[in-house]
Amino acid sequence: MIIISVNTAIEYFSFVTIEKQMMEKADLRELSFREVLSKHDKAEEAGQPSDVARSALETLKASGKEVRIYDSNQKLLGLAVDGIIINNKTPVIFAGNIQNALKGNYAYTVSDDHLLYFAIPIQDKYYQNSYVFEFVEDISYFYTMMDQIRYILFAGAGGFIILITISSLFIARNTTKPIKYLLGATESFSRQQFREVHLNRKDELGMLAAGLNRMGIQLSDYIQYQKQFVSNVSHELKTPLAAIKGFSQYLYEGENEDEELQKIYYHLVNESDRLTLLINELLMLSRFDKAGPDEMDTEKTDLTQLAEQVATGVRAKADSKGIELTIRQGPPAFVYVNQVLMSHAIANVLDNAIKYSDPRTRISIEVLIREQEAIVQISDQGIGISADEIARVQERFYRARNASAAGGTGLGLSICKEIAEKFGGHLSIVSQLGAGTSVSIHLPLL
User: Fold this and answer.
1) Largest CA distance in the chain
2) Residue 8: its H or E element
3) Most buried among 97, 112, 247, 387, using CB within 10 Å?
4) What is the pTM of this model?
């Protein structure tokens, strides 16, 4: 819009300048024509014949590309082309020009071939518009100049747009690059992957990077301390817990007279078993947290075969609860995993499915291959998980509101999630309250 406006303004003011020049020329030619009329009047007074149109044409024939003289009846009295008087030729006549001139106005028309026809009224001594003098100017140079101006404008505008685009991209890149870097750092922090955050800047972004870096160091230290604390406590609890379990088992088996005491001892045995399971899972998490990628003992494994083996191992538990366990045969799916850890992850999900399902329901396990991923999908018809809790059930120690009926530590899915992520995969859960849950372990294919 700016370029079009500038182009229109240049064209308008340029033509105004041309119009002004034509009017100045018209004034001079009108003056010359009136001198001819003055001589004609004197010749008439002296009784000498005189042809006004012929004399005017001889005087002004070189004042334009074409020169024409008309009388008050719009009749062409004379014509000269390129300074030569032409007889017996009918030129292109713009009648509107002549009519406006006879009314006492300057009038002009521009033809399609860029010729300007400028008509001037000529008054006699009685101030009557007796003649019209018309000259023709070639103004094609004006249109050539305008074409060149347009070319320069559009070429300059194109160059300006390219320059602005490159500059904008450069500025945007330099502005957004550190922001993306900081966003990446915060996402890493959310996954507990702490790394140094540094921007060689002294502005607010540099200060923000320094603050994030300090926060990352403090969080990393805190989490490591917390994990170490849990590990130490778990180790310390194993021995007294084993003693409590042994004594509880001894008391339970030895009490045959008091039924109430037997119930209490039985409860102690169950609670010690639950605490033992919790301690073992905490110790596994502790070892898992400390293990580096090189300590995982990964090997090429057929996930389909591994899943079938784990499912076969827990079938007896499902049968004892009256649950049908279906193993769907899938294609071989080779991945790099630690077989013991992956077996534990699959077994944990199956154990949850059995634990939270009612008798006479069905659990299915299947290995799928989809978009360069091997997926172990375990679906049940159990109590399900509410939509607002699906994201949280993968957190450590979190248990869904409707899970209180079954025992558990709240670490099972958390361990599965961390095992999957250790091997470059992830865990996904789809569930509907009261209708069942589908848990999928995604791993990258070889």
Assistant:
1) 169
2) helix 2-45
3) 97
4) 0.47
